[in-house]
Amino acid sequence: MPITIMGDREFENVPSIKSKALRINLNENIYGTFSEIGAGQETVRNFFRAGGASGTIAKAMSAYDKDFSDAIYGIEDDRRYVTEERLKKMLTHETNLIEQRISREKHPNKLFFTYANTVATIDFAKKYKGHGWVGIKYQVHPEEDYNEILLHIRFHENDARLQQNTLGILGVNLIYGAYYKYDNPKKLLRYLYDHIDKDQIEIDTINFSGPRFEKVDNRLMSLQLVKNNMTEAVMFAPDGNNVLPAKILYKKNILALRGSFRPVTKVNMDMYKRSLELFLNENRVSEDNTEVIFEITLSNLRAEGEIDERDFMDRAELLCSLGQTVMISNFQEYYKVVEYFSRYTKERMGLAMGVNNLVDIFDEKYYRHLSGGILEAFGKLFFKDLKVYLYPFKDRETGEITTSDNLKVHPRMKELYKFFKYNGKVVDITNYDPAILDIFSREVLQLIAEGKGGWEDMLPEKTTAMIKEHDLFSHYKQKSAQKI
Fold first, then answer.
1. pLDDT tens digits for 258-267?
2. Rounded-to-integer distance, Cα 301 and Cα 312, Å
3. Where are the domains of the chain?
4. CA–CA distance, 27 with 243 (Å, rounded to integer)
5. d(C-alpha 169, C-alpha 194), whole Å
6. Is the peptide bond before 263 cis (omega within 30 degrees of 0)?
7. What is the C-alpha separation between 448 and 393, in angstroms, rounded?
8. What is the largest CA-CA distance in the chain?
9. Tell me, what's the pLDDT at 475?
């Protein structure tokens, strides 16, 4: 077989979609239902065409009519059909039917599955490219409970037929990976893009559950999505579960804080609280319609070379314990963050940051790839109803406090900076706690790594307790010891 080049699977022999479907069909124990809504029966078609499907496919259906679909799966509270809740109902309903209709005594070795998707392809005006939920509920042992893999996709192709074809390929990859790569979820993720280019479809949410995935942390799976360029950003909620960004951000006022959060310090939390107070005082901003996002960029996670998953998980644990929603993104520039949020909302936005971050925003080197340079970036950043909430910086040697009034940018940027500052786009956080301005997370991390005390009072009480209780960032102690 010739070598096939497929992105992350370069130099591997990638099975064709037909051979994947055929391998499933020829497994006499794999048996289940296909329920596909919104884009034809594109996945099951591949299994029919591969041959030998009679022993695999219990049923294939598409409940296209809304009333008929409601009669089968029930009515959603929000009357929507392309939702995670709808997908779960489809998987549960069809799986229950298999269990009721097929005798375990007669078929003791059968591995039941239900594959389902509920999608909306591109509209006629080509204004909305479409999205959908795709999932599989399945067994890998007949006496074992079911596993689930659920994912959300966003279409990028501009033709409904192309989207349907891509969805069908993705479906085969998912079923094949679920049965033959479940012991390596990271590989399973990469294999979802076999015979699919990453500019055709985006996976922005995925969750694994069930006995075979008990040790899988879905936040790490989210990280893999961004790391593998399957999406630009992922989010997880305070409970640690991955969550659809659209669900969190849709029509919300958004306040975002970017940082390393290694670990979360009193400065981070003071910036959060004070900027939120200012943000909630803005016109048309209400607390019940405001979402605060703590963002960590991939470049930040790669600050010391390859991404340290343990380091990532320690930060995630701390932020979640503080009740925060976390976003991992591939956005180095702030204007890209604003563009991303603008997909989901037209409400007000705020960015809370320190002085050094604002100085970086006015550094032209970050915008050389744009034809319009820094002016293009600032047009994208500030044309929305956005404000920057600036946390001050204290010079340890001189004791000088830097605010928006005495902040120094490159001479060529002075007038541009003045324009945005005096038009109210930069707002100083003035009611900060001056006693904590000397706290820096990198110094806290160093104290932890060296096994020294004195760092405890620099962090929120709950954070300190968690670090000690769960021995977070302990791997830095090992690095420190190796250097010594």
1. 998 989 999 9
2. 7
3. 7-216, 247-436
4. 34
5. 8
6. yes
7. 24
8. 83
9. 58
Residue scoring higher pLDDT (301 or 342): 342
Task: Specify the CATH number for 247-436; select among 3.40.50.620, 3.40.605.10, 3.30.300.30, 3.30.950.10.
Answer: 3.40.50.620
CATH code of the region 7-216 = 3.90.950.20
Dist. CA 365–CA 426, nearest whole Å: 21
**147/441 Cα distance (integer angstroms):** 40
Please identify which residue in the block is written with the tokens 């605060």.
Answer: 292
**Sheet harboring 290-297: ordered strands across?**
242-243, 233-236, 325-329, 290-297, 253-258, 349-354, 386-391, 426-428
Per-residue pLDDT, 13: 83
Q: Which residues contact 383 (CB under 8 A, 6 or more apart)?
A: none
How far apart (Å, rounded) are the C-alpha atoms in residues 296 and 290?
Answer: 20
Residue range 154-195, pLDDT digits in tens = 999 999 999 999 999 999 999 999 999 999 999 999 999 999
Query: How deeply is 21 buried, as exposed, middle or buried, from its count of CB atoms within 10 A (0-12, 13-18, 19+)?
Result: buried
Taking the C-alpha atoms of residue 361 and residue 332, their distance in angstroms, rounded to an integer, is 10
- 31: tokens are 């048996």
